[in-house]
Amino acid sequence: MIIHNRYIPAKKFYAINLFGVIFVRHGVHLNAKEINHERIHTAQMREMLFVFFYLWYVAEWLVLLVKYKNSFLAYKNIRFEKEAYRHGDELRYLKHRKHYAWLRE
Q1: 40 vs 20: CA distance, rounded Å
Q2: Cβ neighbours, 10 Å, residue 53
Q3: What tens-digit pLDDT sequence spans the chain (105 residues)?
Q4: The pTM is what?
Q5: Which one of 2, 22, 26, 79 is most buried, counting C-beta atoms within 10 A?
Q6: CA distance 59 to 53
């Protein structure tokens, strides 16, 4: 489900996936690759029972933030993000994606 609104996400972002619902900044339209990226995150969330996805995501970001001393580099190197960016343009990726594929990133 995609919800366009003026409040979520924060101004410096254009979309965020929260528990499988994609919130998009008002006036922004996601292309197929961006929607697929977010759908890959939804698959990751489901296999991690949502809560564990967020715990792992934040923990990995914090470790990478210490490593890189740069929040954007930390974000780009989170395993969940690596999988979603690597396969975002493969629109049929979710049909053949193996469970926990992000662990191999």
Answers
A1: 10
A2: 20
A3: 999 999 999 888 899 999 999 999 999 999 999 999 999 999 999 999 999 999 999 999 999 999 999 999 999 999 999 999 999 999 999 999 999 999 997
A4: 0.93
A5: 22
A6: 10
